[in-house]
Records
---
Amino acid sequence: MFHTLAVPVIAAPMAGGASTPELAAAVSDAGGLGFLAAGYVTVEQLAEKIKRTRELTSAPFGVNLFVPGTRPTADISSYVRRVTQCADKVGAVPGDPRWDDDNYGAKLELVLALRVPVVSFTFGLPDADDVQRFKAAGTTVVVTVTTPSEARQAQQVGADVLCVQGSDAGGHRGTFTDDGISPGGGELYGTLAALRLVQGAVDLPVIATGGLVHGADVAAVLAAGAVAAQLGTAFLGCPEAGTAAPQREALREGARRTALTRAFSGRPARGLVNRFLIEHTPHAPAAYPNVHHLTRPVRATGELEVMSLWAGTTYPLATAEPAGEVVRRLNEELLDAVNSLARRFSRG
């Protein structure tokens, strides 16, 4: 599947609104592979997004599913009080800090029934029987991993491809288990280090993701053995993306640093530093998705200093071009990097 892409570039699934049918279709039409995010939408909304994407393109695309974890055991009562105080200041009412599975089972059955060409799983492992059902339906199965141990587990359940996420990636870490202590929920590896370590642990095709915004970055991970590069932040400024206006402006300014935090969702994620992140990161419990539901009304106010501004470390280098132009530019930069190296090493 990924070896046949005209451009070895994948638009990462970005839950929360950034990923849209228009963005997925534009990337796929340009020779890459677009993705829809199933997280945080209803089954009916996901069905409509898949339908709309198919109306916009005849090219393959993928859908990403969040694998539900176990119910967190952390006491979050003190954090609820902190968020309530913050909510009062911005005129919001905190959400119900509940656990749910994001309708995982129903979404899985929908994607299976609609025979979406590619399905990817994040935050954990799909059931091995479900993997085989997808394969029987002709769907390529991708599992996001962050460590060699996770890669071995994904291989055991029958994954076709691994998406190896480095620590520079924006948005949520794809770790299977959050240790609740370290900033990233566990061991942090840069993208190239993670790629090489995973390749040393398993014999599966790998996609690389994390901090990739330029065609030379794509060339680097291909040279390191990846079959494709997955980029998220690089597409946040595209007109087809559903990125909120305040976040677009913050990305364009490029003045904020990024940091890992559990403050917005209860799971480690990288975003632009704002007041909410600074004030609440030291107190945020490892309690996903409870914290996500708790803070959602606060984030929905659109106030920049309380929004989750997901972005990777290299976000200042991203552009605001149409998605198709981003894919074409990445391909040109990729070829330039490859040709430059070829010229350098062909000199007698």
---
Amino acid sequence: MRVSDLFIYPLKSARGIALQSTEINAFGLPGDRRAMLINPDGSFITQREMTDLARLDVRQEASGFQLGMNGETLFVPLPDGIKRIDVSIWKSIVNAAVADDHSNQVLSRWFGRELKFVFFDDDANRIASPEWAGDDTPVTFADGYQILVTTTGSLKALNADIEAHGEGSVGMERFRPNIVIDTDEAWPEDRWAAIEIGGIRFDLVKPCARCIMTTQDQQTGSREVANPMPAMGRIRMSADRRVPGPLFGWNVTPRAAGAIAIGDTVNVLDERPDGWAFKVRKRA
């Protein structure tokens, strides 16, 4: 097995960037989900409620972020950290740096609603769930964990069910992974407890429950496209109440620093023999 793709998403829920190689640190892939758009009350915004985020290009540079949408561009300088706000991401509260007023005004005009751009700087702190990831594992603005891993064999199996029901097919971009592993087998990740890439141990700590974002085209934000949710409901519904809903991919916590690249070999270090429990589909 080898790494087939690597991605980061500099601004949470905006377009991703494909990489050939990347460093790995305690936060995961450097530059991943360090920025985010929020409502005036500090609550986070994603494609779930603002589909046009899928149309926002983001490139992080040394001094800030280059954004593009609808033929317009905007450079957002890295916030100096003086102006801050408490932002909420699910159950987490993070004290984040706020961008300059001009940037926030332009972004509010682009999306037709008042919002702010915030940055996870060196003074921001957030810890992943100790119940799943262990103690003191830092995470930025990701939904909950440092890295998301998916496999090509599992996408192939999912698409086989989608196509068998005349529902089209979907690409891996719908699931917004960080690391994609090329596998012949479907769903091997359900058994993996830990893998090694580039000499780094990655613990698969929790399966990823999927939401409406998987139904959206990741370039246009349209939901008038093939929908993987029915297929996941048929073959990937969790039977474990700790993580309810349809599952695709695993949340991963790195246990060392280093570097990985496309083409790197993936070795399984530890397995969970019973895998993960799924509901049995009733036959008509």
---
Amino acid sequence: MSRRRLVFALAAIVAVAGAGAAVTSVTAMTGPEKQRVVADQGLPPATASLTRGDLSDSSQREGTLGHLGERKINAGAAGTLNWIAPTGSTVERDERLYEVDGRPVRLMYGAEPMYRTLKAGDEGKDVRQVEENLAALGYTGFTVDEEYTEKTAAAVKRWQKSHDLKRTGTIGPDAIAFAGSALRVKEAGAATGDQVGPGRPVLTVTGSERVVRFKLPVAEAGTVKTGTRVSVQLPDGARAAGKVSSVGRTASPGDDPQDTSPKIDITVSFDAPEKVKGVDQSPVTVDLTGETRRNVLSVPVNALLALPGGGFGIQVVENGKARDVEVELGMFGQGRVEVSGDGLREGMKVGVPSA
């Protein structure tokens, strides 16, 4: 909720509370306890201290542990599927994703899909990706660019020889598949023995990086942005630091039947994802760090009063008497609100509703 909206909401709450107090005053003359309140010259039923210290607008959200992204890996050639990477396994560069008719299809890193068989003379971004992967694996002797030269073909032959493949110097979707990074196998899209072909899904995969996802009401979207620091309490009780890596731009109804208000998706990335343990879809708690105000005066939020002429105040209690003091509001957080105004000092007692 924005601060402006929060202030208006508080005004409404305080106004209702004030109306209730007025009714109490009217009925105070009918019982001994009420008569005592009137005799106390308007002293509040309870007080709290005006304190000085750091105030943070941090908050908590319930999220779910998972992995980054999800996509399908389709077969690159027709034939019989005779091996597939196990569910839950991680596949890295040059490792097998699946085999068709005994021919492995290996993972290479790159954003462009592998859609054709490359040979000497071809040009394009997919050429550069093949060359970048060959160089990363130690098969060099060519210039990394968008031209598939005879030197590129020679490096491919050396790669093919290392994997006991026929040394053709050409490479295509029947031998490699591209993804942006290492993959984690979420589930199989086919079973060994199935007939597969180009365009038919073989695997459902995600990125290997652990992430957390949670939903945020649209009204509070402004409180979180990319880069916001967080601390995540994991299923085993350990804590892991991270930050918001993406904020959704499209709202959708919540999954909770008790709360179908529009929400946006938030994704959190960990500072050290390789150290994060836990079963997929495990519930976690996300502490949003937010902003911190240092060395400020604050009172409990329920100490605020809506003043007759507009604005907010607090009821200061001193020497057995109570008086209203107008205040300027600052940050809200941790059930308190930053206040400033003439004559305010640490340790003052302010009126609050009784528990």
